[in-house]
Write a structure and sequence with these properties.
mainly alpha, three-stranded antiparallel beta sheet, 7 helices, binds zinc ion, membrane, DUF92_TMEM19, DUF92 domain-containing protein
């Protein structure tokens, strides 16, 4: 308990630093602190390590992607750091895994943690790296090539990046929490669940997820505001935002991996 208390202060210091350098907004900082406390309380430094592996690699990829996108003159999202919606879209599954484990310790929650973060990594890696694909991405439901950055579109570069992101997280998680054959099973299960969860994310993203057309630059975007003006709705349901879809698909991937481990 004492260690947790001390940890809370140290974590608050890091979150404040991330807020100061515009990596997190105020709400994003609070959500990150809560997430960190629960995951550390349940899974200790190993759980925190996995969380950090996801958030640090994603932030670095986003920063690198932003530079590349500026060079390619494609659209860049205006950002003041991650807000609570974005933190929970990717870390919500990990939060439930930690809360569940604190109430009733079981390997199921570990698979939910690893699987949900694997899917979140697949999604982030696919969108940050895939947008750099030289070929125009192929929209799996419209059955034609579309402009870069649209939900529902895939490219071979994006799919490769999704697989690398998913299996990187599952490799780290399985090695930290499991041994021998069990570790190999968890690696395969969580990695595959993460990759397939990202496919589900793409399908939902291309169908019911809301998207808008910017009145100023004409781009198809996921946010309601772009170039400083309110956009026209293009498709989907307003409540099914990108964050909601990310949360649902990452949690679904983690739950699938968790249920499968009960059978094996
Ligand atoms: Zn615009």
């Amino acid at each position: 308990m004492m260690a947790w208390f001390v940890f809370g202060f140290i974590l608050a210091g890091f979150v404040l630093a991330a807020y100061k350098i515009n990596m997190l907004t105020l709400s994003g900082g609070l959500a990150s602190w809560g997430l960190g406390m629960v995951v550390y309380g349940a899974f200790g430094f190993k759980g925190l390590g996995l969380l950090l592996l996801f958030f640090i690699t994603s932030s670095l990829l986003s920063k690198w992607g932003k530079v590349k996108k500026l060079q390619m003159r494609t659209i860049v999202k205006e950002s003041k750091g991650r807000d609570s919606g974005q933190v929970l879209a990717n870390g919500g599954g990990a939060f439930f895994a930690g809360a569940g484990y604190l109430l009733l310790p079981h390997p199921f929650w570990l698979l939910l943690l690893i699987g949900s973060l694997a899917e979140a990594a697949a999604d982030t890696w696919a969108s940050e790296v895939g947008v750099l694909s030289r070929a125009e991405p192929y929209h799996i439901l419209r059955r034609r090539r579309v402009e870069r950055g649209i939900s529902g579109a895939v490219s071979s570069l994006g799919l490769t990046a999704a697989a690398v992101g998913s299996f990187l997280i599952s490799a780290a998680g399985s090695l930290m929490f499991f041994n021998g054959t069990q570790s190999l099973i968890v690696f395969s299960l969580a990695g595959l669940a993460g990759f397939l969860g990202n496919m589900l994310d793409t399908v939902i993203g291309g169908t019911v997820q809301v998207s808008y057309r910017c009145k100023r630059c004409g781009a198809e975007v996921e946010e309601r505001f772009h170039c400083g003006v309110e956009c026209d709705k293009l498709k989907g349901w307003s409540v099914i935002t990108n964050n909601a879809v990310n949360f649902a698909s990452s949690t679904a991937a983690g739950l699938t991996a968790g249920v499968l481990i009960l059978w094996i």
